[in-house]
Amino acid sequence: LAGLPGLEAVDLSGCVRVTDAGVMHLAHLRGLKALGLSDTQVTDSGVTLLLTRFPDLEALGLANTSYVSQTVVP
């Protein structure tokens, strides 16, 4: 993905081995607007960091992410 800095949407749903550390590999995608993370191992910490790192994020899919609580999702 490093060669696609203008990428606006990424769907990693169903990639059960994706964690907070793995999602941070998307950090260079500054224009990211939509991210699917359903059925991953992302946690509250990862979501908090994502919301800080990607100010233009408009859609975040978190269905079936058992390590994410409703306290971090605005």
Q: Could you outline the blueprint of secondary structure elements for this entry?
A:
Layout (H helix, E strand, L loop, with lengths): L8 E3 L8 H4 L10 E3 L7 H10 L5 E3 L13
Parallel strand pairs: 1-2, 2-3
Question: Could you explain the architecture of this structure?
Answer:
- This protein has 74 residues and is α/β, with parallel strands linked by helices.
- It is 19% helix and 12% strand.
- The protein has 2 helices and 3 strands; from the N terminus they run E-H-E-H-E.
- It has a 3-stranded parallel beta sheet, with no helix packed on it.
- Helix 2 links the parallel strand 2 (34-36) and strand 3 (59-61).
- It is globular.
- The mean pLDDT is 91.
List keywords for this structure.
74 residues, alpha/beta, three-stranded parallel beta sheet, 2 helices, 3 strands, 19% helix, 12% strand, globular
